[in-house]
Amino acid sequence: MSARAFDEHPLQTVDTPGGDLVVAGVSKRYGGVPALSDVSLTIEPGKVHSLIGENGAGKSTLGKIISGVIEPDEGTLTLGGVPLVLRSPREAIAKGIITIAQELAIVPALTVAENVYLGSEVTRGGFVRRRESRRRFRELADHVGFDLSPDVRAGNLSTADQQKVEIMRALSRNASIVVMDEPSAALSSNESAALHEIIRSLARRGSAVVLISHFLSEVLSLSDTITTLRDGHLVRTVDAAGATEDSLIEGMLGRSLSSVFPQKAPVDESAPIVLEVDHLSAPGVTDCSFVLHRGEILGISGLVGAGRSELARAIFRDAKVSHGSVRLGGSNLTGHSPHRSIGRGLVLIPESRKEMGLLMGRSVKENISLSRLDLVSRLGWIAGFRERRAVSKLMEKTTVKAANMALPATMLSGGNQQKLLFARSLMCSPSVLIADEPTRGVDVGSKRAIYDLLVEMAQEGMGIIVISSELEEVLGLAHRTLVMRHGRFTADLRGDEMNEQSVLAAAFAETNAT
Ligand SMILES: Nc1ncnc2c1ncn2[C@@H]1O[C@H](COP(=O)(O)OP(=O)(O)OP(=O)(O)O)[C@@H](O)[C@H]1O
Ligand SMILES: [Mg+2]
C-alpha cells in the first residue's frame, strides 16, 4: 500500500479536530487493587504516542479510559480544553475517539463487511445498502493492502484476519484519536508493515494515535512520544528520538536485561525419540515427517498461513488427519482425541487464548488445574491443598501476575492470560509440549522467564516444539528449525545453517521457484 493512496482515501478525513487530549491525575482500582494510579499525560494531534510497560502495568486500562470503555475513579480528561466525560465507547466514537481493543470484539455470526460497518451502515430509508457497503469495503481493503473477502463469516477467520477486520472498522470511521491496543500482535511481518504505514498516515493527517505494543522496535520506529507505565504508575514520558531499546526496558522493568534469550544447552542427538511424525496429511498440511528427541527444542517457522498451526493441531489430534501417523513415546496416537493426547503426555498451547484455551469466567486456579481436575476431585481436599500449592508454584514460574488465584481469568491483563495457558500445560507434566506463539502479547521480562522455563524443561527431558512468527524467537531458542510453506516442509536447518536468511529463503521457497 502506498502512503499517498491512503492519504487520498475518501473515507478517511478528520472532521472532528479535537486539539490536545489531556489526561490529568487519573486513577482506577479494581476491587480495591489499583490498576492505574494518578496518571497524567497529554496526547497531541498528529503524533504517535506509545504506551509501554510490563503485563498488568495498566496500559489497556488507560486505553479503555481514553476510549470510554471504563470510567476512572479519580482524575479528569479534557479535549481541546473542554471537559470530556465518556460514559460509553459510543460516546467516545461520537467525539472521534476510536479504539482497536486487545481482546478482539468482532461479531462472529456477521460477515467481514458487516463487522467493518457495524453501527455505521450505509442506509437509505432504513435499509442497509449492501452494494454500497461492499463497494466501500473493497476500496478500503485495497487501500490498506489487506486481502479479506467481505462475505466470509468473521467467526471463521484466523486471529490475524480478525485483527484486520478490527483495524478496518476503526479506519472506516472518522477518527481524531485512534487507540490501538497491541494491533500487530497477531500480524505477519508484511501485514505489520502495512499497519505501520497506516499509523504514519493517520498521524500525517492530523489524528493522534495511542499505540500500545510489546514490540519495542515497532515503538521506537513509529512513536513521537513514549510513556512507560510500571505497576499502574507513570514512570516517565520521553521523546522517542532520545530513547533506545535498553532505556525502554530499564524503564519498564526497573532493571536492565542483558540478553533476551538464555544460553542454548547442547542437545544429545542420540537421546531417545519422544515424537515421530510420519507422512502426516491433514487440512492445510501435506506429507510432513520429522522426529523429536528427548531434550530437543524444535522450532517451526514460516509465514502466517503456511500451515504451522494446522500441523500442531493435526499432531495433537484436534484436526482430522487424512493420512500418516504420529507416534508418541513409541506407540501410535492415530485416531485419538486431544483429551487422549493429554492423557498420553502430549500438550498443545494453542495460538488463540480466547477461543481455544481459557475458560474466561473461571478462576485462575481452575484454568491452570483444568487438565488435572479428574485427579483433584477423586482425591478430595488433600489434593485440593496440593493443587493450590502446585498452582501457585506454576504461577510464580510463569510470572502470572494476579492478585489471587480465585480471580476469574477475565480480570487478568492480556499477557497474563497468555501465561495462564502456559502454566496449565505444565500442570500435567507432559513429555512433549507444542507451544504455538507462546509469547504473544507477553512483555520482554516475562518472555525471558518463559524462555528460561522452556530451556529448563528441555534439560529435564521434555521434547519441545516452538511455533513462532517472531523469527528471532525461533533462532534464539531452537536447536533445529523446520520451515513450512503451503503446508509442506521446505527446509530442515540446524546449527550454523539456522539464520535469518536461510529461514526466509525457505519460507518463500516456492515463490522463487515458480
Ligand atoms: N475487569 C477487571 N477486573 C479486575 N482487575 C482487572 C480488570 N481488568 C484489568 N484488571 C487488573 O488491572 C491491572 C492492569 O491491567 P491492564 O489490562 O491495564 O494491563 P496491561 O498493561 O494492558 O497488560 P498486558 O500487557 O498484559 O496487556 C492488572 O493487574 C489486571 O489484573
Ligand atoms: Mg493490555
Structural class, by secondary structure, is alpha/beta
CATH superfamily of the largest domain: P-loop containing nucleotide triphosphate hydrolases
Q: How many extended strands?
A: 22
Return residue spans where pLDDT drops below 50 for at least 5 consecutive residues: 1-15
Indicate the proportion of strand residues. 15-25%
How many angstroms does the end-to-end distance come to?
24 Å
Bound molecules: adenosine-5'-triphosphate, magnesium ion
Radius of gyration: 24 Å
Identify the CATH class of the largest domain: Alpha Beta
What percentage of residues falls in helices of 4 or more residues? Answer: 25-40%
- Strand arrangement, major sheet: 6-9-10-3-11-12
Shape summary: globular
**Count of the separate structural domains:** 2
How does the major sheet shape up? 6 strands, mixed
Polypeptide structure, described:
This protein is α/β, with parallel strands linked by helices and 514 residues long. It has two domains: 3-253, Rossmann fold; 273-513, P-loop containing nucleotide triphosphate hydrolases (Rossmann fold). It has 19 helices and 22 strands. Strands 6-9-10-3-11-12 form a six-stranded mixed β-sheet, with helices on both faces. Helix 14 (373-397) crosses helix 15 (414-427). The two termini are 24 Å apart. The relative contact order is 0.11. The structure holds adenosine-5'-triphosphate and magnesium ion. The site of adenosine-5'-triphosphate has 18 residues, from helix 2 and helix 15.
